[in-house]
Amino acid sequence: MSGNTLGTLFTVTTFGESHGPAIGCVIDGCPPGMTLSETDIQPELDRRKPGTSRHVTQRQEADTVEILSGIYEGKTTGTPIALLIRNEDQRSKDYGNIVDTFRPGHADFTYWNKYGIRDPRGGGRSSARLTAPVVGAGAIAKKWLQEQYGTRFHGGMTQLGEIEIPFSSWDFTAQNPFFAPTEDAQLIAKLEAYMDDLRKDGDSIGARIDVVASNVPVGLGEPIYDKLDAEIAYAMMGINAVKGVEIGAGFACVAQRGSEHGDELTESGFATNNAGGVLGGISTGQDIRVSMAIKPTSSIRTPKRSIDKQGNPVMVETFGRHDPCVGIRATPIAEAMLALVLMDHALRHRAQCADVT
Amino acid sequence: MSGNTLGTLFTVTTFGESHGPAIGCVIDGCPPGMTLSETDIQPELDRRKPGTSRHVTQRQEADTVEILSGIYEGKTTGTPIALLIRNEDQRSKDYGNIVDTFRPGHADFTYWNKYGIRDPRGGGRSSARLTAPVVGAGAIAKKWLQEQYGTRFHGGMTQLGEIEIPFSSWDFTAQNPFFAPTEDAQLIAKLEAYMDDLRKDGDSIGARIDVVASNVPVGLGEPIYDKLDAEIAYAMMGINAVKGVEIGAGFACVAQRGSEHGDELTESGFATNNAGGVLGGISTGQDIRVSMAIKPTSSIRTPKRSIDKQGNPVMVETFGRHDPCVGIRATPIAEAMLALVLMDHALRHRAQCADVT
Amino acid sequence: MSGNTLGTLFTVTTFGESHGPAIGCVIDGCPPGMTLSETDIQPELDRRKPGTSRHVTQRQEADTVEILSGIYEGKTTGTPIALLIRNEDQRSKDYGNIVDTFRPGHADFTYWNKYGIRDPRGGGRSSARLTAPVVGAGAIAKKWLQEQYGTRFHGGMTQLGEIEIPFSSWDFTAQNPFFAPTEDAQLIAKLEAYMDDLRKDGDSIGARIDVVASNVPVGLGEPIYDKLDAEIAYAMMGINAVKGVEIGAGFACVAQRGSEHGDELTESGFATNNAGGVLGGISTGQDIRVSMAIKPTSSIRTPKRSIDKQGNPVMVETFGRHDPCVGIRATPIAEAMLALVLMDHALRHRAQCADVT
Amino acid sequence: MSGNTLGTLFTVTTFGESHGPAIGCVIDGCPPGMTLSETDIQPELDRRKPGTSRHVTQRQEADTVEILSGIYEGKTTGTPIALLIRNEDQRSKDYGNIVDTFRPGHADFTYWNKYGIRDPRGGGRSSARLTAPVVGAGAIAKKWLQEQYGTRFHGGMTQLGEIEIPFSSWDFTAQNPFFAPTEDAQLIAKLEAYMDDLRKDGDSIGARIDVVASNVPVGLGEPIYDKLDAEIAYAMMGINAVKGVEIGAGFACVAQRGSEHGDELTESGFATNNAGGVLGGISTGQDIRVSMAIKPTSSIRTPKRSIDKQGNPVMVETFGRHDPCVGIRATPIAEAMLALVLMDHALRHRAQCADVT
């Protein structure tokens, strides 16, 4: 209940700090009999890992995953699956200047106040590095959902700062460093130039990320407090730096009339998808559509006013290696989170409603 | 785990259907020794109850609450507090025409598919009527937080359809039927006319609601999966009809730079509140600021295409008594939800960090 | 997490005090589509209710149950089922003399120290009266298990004080006031005389209760911490006055050799049942066999030394209406607890292992 | 919810199999600021580890623990503490003959039926080896409870087969290979001879283990379903091979009268301890006294009838390295379990009752 476990029936309990010896997680509740090895997990970790372009942190971490348990002769056994990722590139000295001060917009201040002690090396446990085990666990959920229902996940950046990225196709997200769903080379060049300028300025920027799950079975979600959309909102808002979450039409629904918003049903399915695939907290079988706002990184070289532990005023500039836009690497994380929520609810659904046909 | 319990240490388990004999909840984990009676709870229920203006449903429910347990000589004993509200005004015949069809945008379709059976009378369990017990429980959380920390809750409507409602003061929300935080009589008149037109059209409309908690202690929230903002997003997205949630700057942060977004700290506190009172998932001590999008009611008189249980195409018009804008009565619900989340995390915090000074 | 909810997927949250307005529970997780009404529940409550013979408390409570939710047209809908039982016969004045003192062997002392406040009327929440909602919930679990797997429950008293009751058949437990599984009329007469003497002495006595579940599917139970036998031990030890629990051979296994204890498997099944139907925390498909020790009632007329709230020495005699042997009415409670544990694990099993054949 | 997590607020999630690459656990909820290193944990692991005398399994495992997270500059930070123990001495070939058959009295049969797949190497996850991470976690709980309340834990064997071991003092448990609380050298010699004979016979034997916690604060335990004694029963029955649990007087209470059983209170405390330190599910402040029955090891050389996976009759003899009496190494495990339950409830108590004085 200290908040390091995600999920109810398919649970992920993570551990580790950015600059400790290792990070990892224990995944509990995976059904037995599924083929699984590190080769199913590593590709997802590779999508998230640092150092893949000049627009993300230059920390060098291979993020090589080791499965410690839960597999026998290449198959899951129904027992916990532990994933271990050793930390390799810790330059803790980079963080010397923030040991006693609080970065504006960062968890430094709140961890210190909550616990009375704080591991300042790389942000300790508050580091976005802790999303790696989640991505690893998400790879398992994705595989299971794909095998059971043919569920597929897609995601990408749809806005960087003030630059909107019109959606073209998910096919293109792997072809640029931003997970942008566009083949517009000029737009990509514009995004690259934007990031280069930002880096020169020692500043950071926000982003909008969209994720979609297709081929989701109807009936997932538990009313009235573990609604599927409520759990998705929880999962997404729990990703570092997320400040807003929308399902389907999202905030646009404020100005919609009921005659416009409600998705009509026809013999061949729903005519529109304002609901984003969830009605009354339960999946409709349509695509689950989620959008989220990611704030700019708080660790920037631009000096800002802050205080130290004693409450004295100081100016803070953060050196070390940081992502100037944490939104860039957020796509695989958001996909993983969505997969984890869906798998958890798939198991919950069959517990109570196994007999419903 | 079937989703009818909210919270971890301060839990609310609700029961009931819109047109069943009663609705209510069991509240567990309330600390002992707090003075409590129905008079602490009824006023909050009265803020939410139907029939208070021509702009909401005309169903007549006094929503009179009875405390069944957990109180001895006027004080909480640390044992479960059960609240009971009898349903009084059930005109189930109003719903005869939707027994076999699915209202576009409504949970009818998903409940049917999930459970294979559905109580269609007034929406059954999916009815917003089920927020009444939550509001009752929230009154207890509000009282406790007020006594412990002086925490106060405010909320109101900041947009109705396309009409924005500029914030003036929370003092005015009780003086108009919309919980609008404005004393602008012309604007209120405009909102009333807007609603009257809508009702004549047999249509419905969305709204934006903001809620704020002040005097929140620093340190509440559990990283890294039960972050305070993640739990708030879960709670708010779990309210009927909510499609989007923002904390602090929300989606505006997409276009913000780090140099702008990160709230500077000074000797006299934070200089701004883009964070909305949460950093790294933990409360900063600033106001918690939440905004949410509420979709238009799906039960409207305007005919829409749908299908029946056999999959045949039908046209659906919904009669009976419905709120043309569920956002109008959402304010006390959202305040209650926020109070429940904060109280839960206050108890969680003192479990683990009781010794931190 | 304040301990008023039993179960993980099939949960029972109880509320109420012995002399408050009502007791009851919310049952969550019941699969949809099962026929259910009060007539399925009342007979089990009648087995437990007070006043059925001169050997139990003479408090007059009809224990009439009302279902408040979760049923539509006679069938469960998958939503919470709330049960309400109004208290009728509260003679709270009987308890006046124990308001400020602690009965030896009673929860008076610990509730006072834990909460700093205590409802002394009839023991408040610590009263065995609070097992009534559990028996009601157990009736639902029994019905579901019977329909799904043909599971049957039996139980009875196998020892009263020093008098052992040799097992003859479960068929006889309904034919005497002790739930004794014997047709030996002389033995029953001996038990009656024993109880009459005890009552004259103003004293109480312990008992041993056995319960058995037959036709339990193989595979229920979650290693390695929610083992089926661990959960049964938790459930049984949680019944008021239980001080010991055994599964299968129980304490007799201390003096057994492995060559004797391990139940051999043959083509036609297990040859013996030392395991009590559980191996490695998972059901074997054999009868689940549980035995428990129930301490003598602490509320007795015999004077004993105690202290008052101020710590001053006092002599305590308890008047009012009490069971001289709480073990007598324990059988339906223990059966209910066993049914609740099995149903919970049946749902848990199908969540994770639905595909195992 | 798949049963690999122990506790509610202070949780231990274990992973690993007997012959996999590693075993370990994630401990969540430890309060921040406590000095902690491997040297606090290793001594407890050494008490449990195999190969310490000729009466236990000869498998050679150093059980060296590595802390992977949750510590900064020698102190706990409030974040998860992961413990890793690499498996070193896996002779999986020893188990070749039980891959397709089920040992009588062993979890082989039930794991196979539950999951449809089973790691047979050394019992896989059902191995008592998985108690090592629990002992590691228990060391942390012991340290915290000692620092907070001066709580101390003792335990030992009080019966081996039919040989009773009269209690002399806990001081002697470290001076013999059985954790026997006696200085009677002749009795120890008798136990050694008994075990030597047993080993020659290729058989195994049961044992009784007692554990005691002293200096336990009053008020721990949550009525009415997470009673302290219910949780202890759950924890102890969850230890491999336990078939019975008693608190205080245990089964002896069946033949006790209320006038004898109820512990009188005097100005200087309780006069007796039939309750075993728990009344109404809440600690009284007296010693918590627990006793448990441990069945004989099911892996024995003596041939027994069984079946193979296809249901054909076979004779099973188990070779490999096994404890002829698993009760011998059970003492540190039972102490650890008791410590984990108490720490969990200490945190739960301060969540709800922090203000009670």
From TrEMBL, chains A, B, C, D:
<keyword id="KW-0521">NADP</keyword>
<dbReference type="InterPro" id="IPR035904">
    <property type="entry name" value="Chorismate_synth_AroC_sf"/>
</dbReference>
<keyword id="KW-0057">Aromatic amino acid biosynthesis</keyword>
<feature type="binding site">
    <location>
        <position position="54"/>
    </location>
    <ligand>
        <name>NADP(+)</name>
    </ligand>
</feature>
<keyword id="KW-0285">Flavoprotein</keyword>
<feature type="binding site">
    <location>
        <begin position="295"/>
        <end position="299"/>
    </location>
    <ligand>
        <name>FMN</name>
    </ligand>
</feature>
<comment type="subunit">
    <text>Homotetramer.</text>
</comment>
<dbReference type="Pfam" id="PF01264">
    <property type="entry name" value="Chorismate_synt"/>
</dbReference>
<keyword id="KW-0288">FMN</keyword>
<feature type="binding site">
    <location>
        <begin position="125"/>
        <end position="127"/>
    </location>
    <ligand>
        <name>FMN</name>
    </ligand>
</feature>
<protein>
    <recommendedName>
        <fullName>Chorismate synthase</fullName>
        <ecNumber>4.2.3.5</ecNumber>
    </recommendedName>
</protein>
<feature type="binding site">
    <location>
        <begin position="240"/>
        <end position="241"/>
    </location>
    <ligand>
        <name>FMN</name>
    </ligand>
</feature>
<dbReference type="GO" id="GO:0004107">
    <property type="term" value="F:chorismate synthase activity"/>
</dbReference>
<comment type="function">
    <text>This reaction introduces a second double bond into the aromatic ring system.</text>
</comment>
<feature type="binding site">
    <location>
        <position position="321"/>
    </location>
    <ligand>
        <name>FMN</name>
    </ligand>
</feature>
<comment type="pathway">
    <text>Metabolic intermediate biosynthesis; chorismate biosynthesis; chorismate from D-erythrose 4-phosphate and phosphoenolpyruvate: step 7/7.</text>
</comment>
<keyword id="KW-0274">FAD</keyword>
<keyword id="KW-0456">Lyase</keyword>
<comment type="similarity">
    <text>Belongs to the chorismate synthase family.</text>
</comment>
<keyword id="KW-0028">Amino-acid biosynthesis</keyword>
<dbReference type="InterPro" id="IPR020541">
    <property type="entry name" value="Chorismate_synthase_CS"/>
</dbReference>
<feature type="binding site">
    <location>
        <position position="280"/>
    </location>
    <ligand>
        <name>FMN</name>
    </ligand>
</feature>
<feature type="binding site">
    <location>
        <position position="48"/>
    </location>
    <ligand>
        <name>NADP(+)</name>
    </ligand>
</feature>
<feature type="region of interest" description="Disordered">
    <location>
        <begin position="40"/>
        <end position="60"/>
    </location>
</feature>
<dbReference type="InterPro" id="IPR000453">
    <property type="entry name" value="Chorismate_synth"/>
</dbReference>
